[in-house]
Amino acid sequence: MNTLIVLSGLAVIILLLEIFNFRKGxxxxxxxxxGGAIAATLCPETFVKTELYNMVHLSPISKWFSILFIILTMxxxxxxxxxxxxxxxxxxxxxxLKIFVLIGAxxxxxxxxxxxxxxxxxxxxxxxxxxxxxxTEKIKSNEAGMKYFLMGSFASGxxxxxxxxxxxxxxxxxxxxxxxxxxIPNVPLWLPIGFAMIVIGMLFKIAAFPFHFWAPDVxxxxxxxxxxxxxxxxxxxxxxxxxxxxxxxQGIMPDMxxxxxxxxxxxxxxxxxxxxxxxxxxxxxxxYSGISHAxxxxxxxxxxxxxxxxxxxxxIAYATAGIAAFAVVIYAxxxxxxxxxxxxxxxxxxxxxxxxxxxxxxxxxxxxxxxxGFFAKFFLFKTALSNGxxxxxxxGVINSIISIYYYFKVILNMYTxxxxxxxxxxxxxxxxxxxxxxxxxxxNIVIGMYPSLILNLA
Amino acid sequence: MNISLLLLIxxxxxxxxxxxxxxxxxxxxxxxxxxxxxxxxxxxxxxxSATVLTESYTWIDSLNIKLSxxxxxxxxxxxxxxxxxxPIILLTTNQQxxxxxxxxxxxxxxxxxxxxxxxxxxxGFLYYIFWELALIPIFFIGLLWGNDEFRIRKKxxxxxxxxxxxxSLFMLIAFVYLYAKVGSFNWNVLKSxxxxxxxxxxxxxxxxxxxxxxxxVFPFHTWxxxxxxxxxxxxxxxxxxxxxxxxxxxxxxxxxxxTQGVEKSIVNTIVVLCIIGVIxxxxxxxxxxxxxxxxxYSSMAHVxLxxxxxxxxxxxxxxxxxxxxxxxxxxxxxxxxxxxIIHSRYQTxxxxxxxxxxxxxxxxxxxxxxxxxxSVGLPGxxxxxxxxxxxxxxxxxxxxxxxxxxxxxxLGAYYMLKMFQHSMLGNVNENTFTDINTKEFVLLTVLVVVxxxxxxxxxxxxKIISLTxxx
Lengths: 458, 471
What we know:
Number of strands of chain B: 2
Strand content of chain A: under 5%
Largest sheet of chain B: 2 strands, antiparallel
Helix content of chain B: over 70%
Radius of gyration of chain B: 21 Å
Number of helices of chain B: 19
Number of strands of chain A: 0
Shape of chain B: globular
Largest interface: A-B, 27 and 27 residues
Oligomer: heterodimer
């Protein structure tokens, strides 16, 4: 609750700053406020859980997820300092929208009451629709916003309908009482149906097969910083809340549900990875790689009791690598119409540090030890094997192998160039992107070396 | 003093080399490599009194993963191969040879760090990490400093990387499966896991896939010749001299002890595959005109025999495998160095463009001939002891295995001598070939002395091997 209050206050203040003509202070103040939000999350809850204050509650694991969201937002907001340089008059709007995304994400993980969850989901989604279309001069950005809005609102409709059915069956919006109710034998048929509809909506949000079609187009069209937000913060928030809902509902799902998730995981991984092989645009490539990672994250849905920490670890590994990678992408593609992989040719010579960081980030996503992406996959495989899903692990491994190819395609591109070609690359002169990239890749490496840091958290 | 400090020497060395800048990198790297070699020698006495050196530090508590190291006779030999070959390999390069030398040499030291870690780690998870870490430096060494056009090289190196990585992921599955059963990655605990025959078979095969690609065993060898050809000499030496041995070492250390319940028929199949590889590689080597490719296939034939011997899982097989791993390491590094010397004079690797070098460079061709003989396994060289023991172990298993495995010596003599004849003998070459200089002379002498010295007096090696508890 504290976290949400701090964040909401912050978002409104940032909006108001524009009026007072205090643009310079926006970013520092936001970072400060987000730091305050972390502190508020870590402090014990001021509001005791009573009849009135029970719609939001931070369990230990959702506390750490919230902190992850806040840290990711911090990185994104700091990058905004230079990213929105040309459109400085709108800075307060952009930054406060980013904070609203964060508020939505925190609601989605901290909810106790399904209305809170839906409000969170909508705050997150609507803000993202706006952000996706925010580059109004570009037709692609408009297209992305429109597409995302049409398909996203459809998915939200599914979620809402699902919630209604669940309420119809259980007479409650509270996730705890729904979980209790679902343990009773002979639940009404529409309870599992409602749950399935919520799952469909959430699968859309995390861009899992067969609801993944929007992702590449929207990622490509949206401004880069919005793509960063969507592929890290939004995806992580969606999978975390799907995990939380699944935990409450696992009692009622028929056996077929497990098989269905099993098949969806395999399809999601394969579709993401195989289509990624042929991409020439780095945003689309990262979109498809994100789809395959959604498949990996869904492993945890098959072992809900034990996997919360593993999901947290995977999301941290994925999101930190994602932000570092996008920081380099923004850095290297300033003033370009499109973000082609070809544009990275010679980056290894032009700015070796950034090329190294992008390499490390991609290697982490590919799952090379000792980067944290490897451990993340390792923990998933470990749990899957001890639950007897040998086939799933083998498919996961095959997909890791496929993914190496396209990650390496980008890496090799950076180190390939003809003589002097590298001098033509235009890179950003800003120091913000390198700093953020270094920071997030450092987090990635540190938790790779000491996985206990995360695994012992909650 | 702990032997795991050796790892620290190489790791810190890698960073120091990188920091020392382009001009000093080579010197710093060589100094570090000598420190490593001396450090290794210091432990010769200690390992004989203690037999096994173990260390353990906490790492990931919640999963019961530890930084545990164990050095017994087998590991000590392998570490020796690493520590002693590294200075030689580094010295074969020239001061001004490479662009961005500081990156290259620090990658080499980092790779040595990872390889030594592989030979020492006794926690399966740690072992896996070192195993994978060794792959990344060699990928970049081959990619950035290799021969031929970048585009072609890129294709070769990425095939190599994906191929090897794919294999080792199956090993990871095997490890994780065992871990899920016993709750620890420690070698001793994994070894005591009660496996059904079916489980043992699958785990055996998963391990085999990883090691067969690394070694390489027929039919998983397709990456090898291309990678050797495209890598720079220093990379080829590291790959063939040390990195291949990671696979052979792992068979002895991990695969065989952890899967004792495996069916005999699978073992037989794999031994037969190894022997097919021996003959197949020898036949291909006969047809090669590119000297590095020829050496690659000859190397594949030799390691195929080592793998066959190791897979017999007998006392002689293991002992022969360890000896032959060392012998092959020294011989193959010598031969690739020879190829590199020729290349530095003639700018070619094609045997058809050589010929008639002996009359211009007698010292050089004498060394070449000794190394050729050592490779063939002539009595009096270290390889002879190894090959003989290996063939003996195959004979114990099935006489036909020994007969077919033995063809490696006959065919080996044929293609190696043919190569020598075409490159060194014949009419005097029109291009002048300056005989070897002092540095080359010293390095080749060291290699030859090791090969022949241990051939006549292999006792020190036997003494260490006898300290291996798994024997």
